[in-house]
Structures are given as structure tokens and as C-alpha cells.
Amino acid sequence: DVRERTLIAIKPDGVQRRLVGQIIHRFEQRGFKLVGLKMLQASQDVLSEHYCELRTKPFYGSLLRYMTSGPLVVMVWEGHNVVQTSRTMVGNTNPAEAQAGTVRGDFSIHVSRNVVHASDSVERAKKEIQLWFQTKDLLDWESWDQT
Ligand code: DAT
Ligand code: MG
């Protein structure tokens, strides 16, 4: 499905460390299409919905403190198999196990500061995109190379 979409978020450490451009560059270079982008300070409400499946984890409190510690850059990327390919590009949740060449493998060392979020399934991606974006803020633009 060439219209598949995923949610990618650059976490506060990624913004602090000036990695925004490099991360966006990797998705553009791979060939995905940017259809939504914004910088924001996340609210507890949105984050507790975003990470609802982790509510009972021991690290949940510190995860929410980290995610609200500074601005995020939240994006929607579109293209064939974008959910799965993005997960590969982002790398293992634990940077110690993330391959070199992945975002986490190249830019991070600890699971609690792993630079970037990527939706883990097409279903979750749909929910996350709805949670972070209004439909009107997602642009359905046509690539020149497809006309
Ligand atoms: P991912 O972000 O790769 O989808 P996840 O959904 O399992 O991973 O967890 C969400 C985030 O929670 C993860 O990016 C960092 C944090 N996290 C996960 N496991 C953790 C752990 N054992 N200790 C601290 N933070 C953790
Ligand atoms: Mg996840």
C-alpha cells in the first residue's frame, strides 16, 4: 500500500542534541513522503494515551517525565511498507542492541533516551496519527515524479 502512513516523533533528547535534520534526512533519502510535521510540547493527556499499553511498567513515570521535558518534533511519513521499514530504520528499542546504521544504533546508548519513536504496526499507526494530528493538518500532496 503506497498510501501507508506512520507516526515518527523525535523525542526531547533528539531535539536537544540537534538531530532533527539528520533524522528527517534519513526518511527523505529513503524515499518516503512527508505529509505532516509539527513541533510541540506534549501534554500528559496525549502521552498517557500514546503510551497506554505501558501504563503498568516500572519505567512509565520516568518515561512520561522524559517525554514532557522539552519539545518533540512529530511527523507523519507515507509510502510503501513505511511502518515496518521505519521500525528497521529506527532500530531496536534498546540502543545497546540497535544495529549501526539505525537511528538508535548511531545516536544513542540508553533505552530511556532513545531519540525517536516509530509506530509498531499499521493499526497503531492509525491510532497514533489520529491522536497527534487533525486530518486537515495532513497534506495529501502529489509527487512531481508521479505525474
Ligand atoms: P519502542 O519505542 O521501540 O516502540 P516500546 O513501545 O516497547 O519501544 O517502549 C516505548 C518507550 O518506552 C521506549 O522507546 C523507551 C521506553 N522504554 C521501553 N522499555 C524500557 C525500559 N526497560 N526501561 C526504560 N525505558 C523503557
Ligand atoms: Mg512502541
Automatic annotation (TrEMBL):
Q: Where in the cell is it found?
A: Cell projection, Lamellipodium; Cell projection, Ruffle; Cytoplasm; Mitochondrion intermembrane space
EC class of this enzyme? transferase
Which GO BP terms sit in this record? CTP biosynthetic process; GTP biosynthetic process; UTP biosynthetic process
Active-site residues per Swiss-Prot or TrEMBL entry: H117 (pros-phosphohistidine intermediate)
Q: How does it sit in the membrane?
A: Peripheral membrane protein
* GO MF annotations, alphabetized: ATP binding; metal ion binding; nucleoside diphosphate kinase activity
Keyword vocabulary terms for this entry: ATP-binding, Cell cycle, Cell projection, Cytoplasm, Kinase, Magnesium, Metal-binding, Nucleotide metabolism, Nucleotide-binding, Nucleus, Transferase
One GO cellular-component annotation of the UniProt record comes to:
ruffle
Enzyme Commission number: 2.7.4.6
Q: Which residues form a coiled coil?
A: none
Q: Where do the annotations place ATP binding?
A: K11, F59, R87, T93, R104, N114
Record's catalysed reaction(s): a ribonucleoside 5'-diphosphate + ATP = a ribonucleoside 5'-triphosphate + ADP; a 2'-deoxyribonucleoside 5'-diphosphate + ATP = a 2'-deoxyribonucleoside 5'-triphosphate + ADP
Question: Could you say which protein family the record assigns here?
Answer: Belongs to the NDK family.
Q: Could you tell me what this protein does?
A: Major role in the synthesis of nucleoside triphosphates other than ATP.
Under which name does UniProt file this protein? Nucleoside diphosphate kinase
Q: Please give the organism.
A: Gambusia affinis (Western mosquitofish)
